[in-house]
């Protein structure tokens, strides 16, 4: 089953043509990394997939259904932002449960999912704390926990580690890889960090100026970059 299929997706803001004929397939359970320089359209592409922006043209299919007109909360997707985007006036439990309450999930279901996510992310001792009382790494884990409790089929991560220091980045990267194997969900992960891309990805999509430059496994791109641009990002140094 294909988790996500983008077919000739374009996105313009007024006269600015940001995404150009994007065609990408994500298989169920696949970990796909989007890489490309700042401003090439990575965040816009995630927002279009999530439904936070409308595509100007083209089709978005999730788990076999065309979702162009489906609101974000009904797409079976959860997104984790670089900035965490936690609610400061809600404690960790409140941040993690808000979307489930809005969905009208029963209390017992909400509690079970929060406990499960808290265990996975070692957040048990912090459930009553507020974001201002947490470290950057803990905040990012809460943001990931908030996505997990929704049990999405597809996770979208937008440079989730870029605000963390190097040691924490490595730990959190390993944690995300573990989550992927535990949850079995499809994940799309945006980064401009070559190590993250090479270590996490089943498949890498290289974007440049709103276009797909090359798609392949880390080894394919490393050994056979389509051009100098891809080589510069991911290719072998020779
Ligand atoms: P990336 O995440 O790869 O750094 P973005 O998707 O944030 O790139 O941005 C891609 C391009 O789209 C940039 O030129 C940016 O200025 C433009 N852009 C993004 N959002 C908007 C918007 N709401 N209105 C106008 N231009 C936008
Ligand atoms: Mg971005």
TrEMBL record:
Residue stretches making up the ABC transporter domain: 4-234
Organism of derivation: Ruegeria marisflavi
GO molecular function, one term: ATP binding
Keywords, in A-Z order: ATP-binding, Nucleotide-binding, Transport
N-terminal signal peptide: none
Taxonomic classification: Bacteria, Pseudomonadati, Pseudomonadota, Alphaproteobacteria, Rhodobacterales
Name of the protein in question: ABC transporter ATP-binding protein
Parent-protein start and end of this portion: 1 to 238 of 330
TM region positions: none
Coiled-coil positions: none
Similarity field: Belongs to the ABC transporter superfamily.
């Amino acid at each position: 089953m294909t988790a996500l299929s983008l077919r000739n997706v374009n996105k313009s803001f007024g006269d600015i043509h940001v995404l150009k004929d994007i065609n990408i397939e994500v298989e169920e359970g696949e970990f796909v990394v989007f890489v490309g320089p700042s401003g090439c359209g990575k965040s816009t592409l995630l927002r279009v997939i999530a439904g936070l922006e409308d595509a100007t043209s083209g089709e978005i299919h999730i788990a076999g259904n065309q979702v162009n007109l489906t609101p974000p909360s009904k797409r079976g997707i959860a997104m984790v932002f670089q900035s965490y985007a936690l609610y400061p006036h809600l404690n960790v439990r409140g941040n993690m449960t808000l979307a489930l309450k809005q969905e009208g999930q029963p209390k017992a279901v909400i509690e079970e999912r929060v406990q499960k996510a808290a265990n996975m992310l070692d957040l048990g001792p912090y459930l009553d704390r507020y974001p201002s009382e947490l470290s950057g790494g803990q905040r990012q884990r809460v943001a990931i926990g908030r996505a997990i409790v929704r049990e999405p089929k597809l996770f979208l991560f937008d440079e989730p580690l870029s605000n963390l220091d190097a040691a924490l980045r490595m730990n959190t990267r390993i944690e995300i890889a573990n989550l992927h194997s535990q949850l079995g969900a499809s994940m799309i992960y945006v980064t401009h960090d070559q190590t993250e891309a090479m270590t996490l990805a089943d498949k890498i999509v290289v974007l440049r100026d709103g276009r797909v430059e090359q798609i392949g496994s880390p080894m394919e791109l490393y050994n056979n970059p389509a051009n100098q641009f891809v080589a510069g990002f991911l290719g072998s140094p020779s």
